[in-house]
Amino acid sequence: MTKPAPATKAASSKKLAVKTDEKPWTKTEVDEVRNELHADRDRLRSELNMAEHDLHDLMRDAGDGAGNDQADVGSTTFERDHEMSLANNAREMLAQTERALGRIEDGSYGVCEQCGEPIGKMRLMAFPRATLCLSCKQREERR
Prior knowledge:
mainly alpha; 2 domains; elongated
């Protein structure tokens, strides 16, 4: 008697949620979204590393302020704040991207985190990091 082959990750994964008027996710569609998220993750990691490096350089140079006039100090402060904003934005988008990848793997991808209804394939293909259906997102933005 032979042992059954171990279940692969793809075979053991749950079906992803879809709206009633949508066809189920195909392997190609899931792979396309997953590849886009992986590419975003790599790009965001690179942007974050660059922003953190630039921020480190600005912070290091900030100690050399002797003799700088107010315009130089203001310009340096503006650059530092800008780099901090870029780093924080990249960090947040990276977290959202990694969370979306995790949701694909655990089978919860495509389910609205607020109401529990399907988000919709078209919305997810346009914005793969979406965690809310269109109705819940619109309600959130009105607040």
